[in-house]
Amino acid sequence: MFTKVLPENVQELQQKVAYAEQVKLITNKIHAAQELNHILVDLQKDILSLFDAERLTLYACDTEKKEIFARIPHNDTIEEIRTPIGEQSLAGFTAKYLRPINLGDAYSKTELAGIHPSLVHDSSWDRKTSFKTKQVLTYPIVAENKYLMGVIQLLNKKSGARFTKKDEDSVAEIAKGLGIAFFNLRKLAKKTPTKFDHLVANNLITQAELETAIAEARKGSADLESLLIEKYKVPKAELGKSLSQFYKCPHVEYHERMFLDPELLKALNVDYLKKNYWTPIKRDKTGVEILIDDPNDLDKVQDIKRSFPGQTIRFAVCLRRDIVQLLRIGVGHSRRTDQRIDAGAAR
After folding, report:
1. pTM score, two decimals?
2. Domain 14-191, CATH number (from 3.30.450.40, 3.40.50.300, 2.40.160.20, 3.40.640.10)
3. How far apart are CA 222 and CA 321, in angstroms?
């Protein structure tokens, strides 16, 4: 005899399969992330979609400062929130003791005291945003069962008075994947040199500030180098030095006395050069000198070699804003020169 499967059981099974597929998809995205900001900022909504919660916050661990931090998109910028590892906040407590917290009322002193006599709910973010925190579920993000990587925090259960055992199991599953991803990204960051290492090593900007700036540049309209100069007050010369050390080529900074050889631009589309951030600046017996924002960009390098076949190419790194400015001024100068030549020929 066959047992008849009830329609509601079929529907429940379909929901479980669909949820498992969604978890797998998002977990794959987490493991494919090339940098921490991609998980903290870009994947936040995807991860939240797995849970019956109004909001989600992902914290990463700053072991040097003994803090956890989150990066929250706000308008066109990214706002960083930091909290000490300790009893001053729910996420901080979870980070310190590697213990989950499940509260029905974040403001209940009785519930808080039942977990730890010194535990408090940090309500500063509620006051700042007018968001009312009710239910809270926090879970530690750990690698290899011992290394604190961060904390995942769910706020306000959509259906019900508090988060359930099923919610806890779901958070634990995602936290496990996040722990592996955070750990791998930390190892990768230690091994892989970046074009801003000089700035961090010389205390011109902190690693945390740099990561926040990278996230801001991804969300906003300004390029990263401009943000570092204007918002984070990194000296332009030091930024150029950092780029030069990374790309192992000279850095060229725009100045008013610079000009482009108009002969080099005749066969090139200036709008294309502006969009791709490179330009030839001069040619001599030894070859053509190219200003470019990224000398390691193979697609751009191939385009440049096709534009100057059979010629030796020398690269110098240059900020995007400087390349665009140079092209704007250089093309204007070239047109004025042509107009004077034409006028002279007419006379």
Report:
1. 0.66
2. 3.30.450.40
3. 10
Of 74, 71, 28, 73, the closest CA to residue 47 belongs to 28
In the chain, what are the domain boundaries?
14-191, 197-245, 249-346
Q: Scanning the structure block, which residue is given the tokens 């804003």?
A: 321
The phi and psi torsions of 157 (rounded to 5 degrees) equal -65, 130
Element (H, E) at 47: helix 44-48
Q: Determine the 3-state secondary structure of 142 from DSSP.
A: strand
Burial level of 80, CB count in 10 A (0-12/13-18/19+)?
A: middle
Pairing state between β 67-74 and 147-157:
unpaired
CB 323, CB 278: distance < 8 Å: yes
Taking Cα atoms as reference points, which of 290, 265, 266, 267 lies closest to residue 277? 290
Residue 295 tokens, joined: 């000398």
- What is the residue-level pLDDT of the chain in tens, covering all 347 positions? 455 555 667 788 888 888 889 989 999 999 999 889 899 988 999 999 999 999 999 999 998 889 999 998 777 778 888 999 999 999 999 999 999 999 999 999 999 999 999 999 999 888 888 889 999 999 999 999 889 999 999 999 999 899 999 999 999 999 999 999 999 998 887 777 889 999 998 999 988 889 889 888 887 768 999 999 999 999 999 999 999 999 999 999 998 888 888 888 888 999 999 999 999 999 998 899 999 999 999 999 999 999 999 999 999 999 999 999 999 886 655 444 444 434 343 44
Q: CATH number of the domain at 249-346, out of 3.60.10.10, 3.30.300.160, 3.40.50.720, 3.50.90.10? A: 3.30.300.160
The crossing angle, in degrees rounded to 10, of helices 7-32 and 165-191 is: 20
Name residues whose C-beta falls within 8 Å of residue 111's C-beta, 6 or more positions apart in sequence.
103, 104, 105
